[in-house]
From TrEMBL:
It is found in: Vacuole membrane. GO terms for cellular component: vacuolar membrane. The chain crosses the membrane at residues 89-109, 166-186. Residues 94-167 form the SAC domain. This is SAC domain-containing protein. The keyword Kinase does not apply. The keyword Membrane applies.
Length: 201
């Protein structure tokens, strides 16, 4: 096999390992983002703590699960939280846009619908067709600020932003994350998102 053919095969294998679709679940104390690749051969779990009223604590499970192992993990989570309502399905999504905070709790912005815009060098580029803003802390730990008029106004403005101007390309996101890890860049996503959102108004 020629070197160029091996390179193409490697790119195809790498592309099939990208997580492309997600399911969000919740318990009283945590969110669980379950992601899978296109071929449904690799499943990953991301956990977000819901017990802190004004912080974001994220835990990435380094294990790559099979589909059966992943759903067994979800079953155990449900059983372990049965006394407080168990594990509940929230929504299907295609990724996390980011996290943002105004005066009270943090919110998670997710992509709930995407649209194909085209391809770049064989890689599909999607646009955000629909998004959703989700309060991370559970209602039982929220302060009065979370229900204030100012907080509701900021939340409404964010949810009304035109996310259609965002574009998704898996190979670009992968490159960005590798650069961040390589140079140990820690970005203030709250500032970036705020500047971006209000520029869309």
């Amino acid at each position: 096999m020629a070197a160029s053919e091996r390179s193409i095969d490697k790119e195809v294998d790498m592309g099939s390992s990208f997580l492309q679709k997600f399911r969000l679940y919740e318990t009283r104390s945590s969110f669980y983002m379950i992601g899978r690749d296109k071929n449904r051969t690799s499943w990953r779990v991301l956990k977000l703590d819901r017990t802190e009223p004004a912080e974001v604590n994220i835990y990435e499970d380094s294990t790559a699960y099979t589909e059966a192992e992943c759903f067994e993990t979800l079953r155990r989570i449900h059983e372990g939280n049965r006394s407080s309502g168990g594990l509940k399905f929230v929504t299907t999504c295609y990724g996390i846009i980011g996290f943002i905070r105004f005066l009270g709790p943090y919110y998670m912005l997710i992509i709930t619908k995407r649209k194909k815009l085209g391809e770049i060098c064989g890689h599909t580029v999607y646009g955000v067709a629909k998004s959703k803003i989700i309060t991370i802390p559970h209602a039982s730990v929220l302060s009065n600020v979370a229900y204030s008029k100012d907080e509701k106004r900021f939340s409404y403005v964010t949810s009304a932003c035109k996310m259609e101007n965002l574009y998704l390309a898996t190979f670009i996101l992968t490159l960005l994350f590798e650069i961040i890890k390589l140079y140990h860049l820690y970005l203030d996503f709250k500032t970036i998102l705020l500047s971006f959102f209000f520029s869309l108004l």
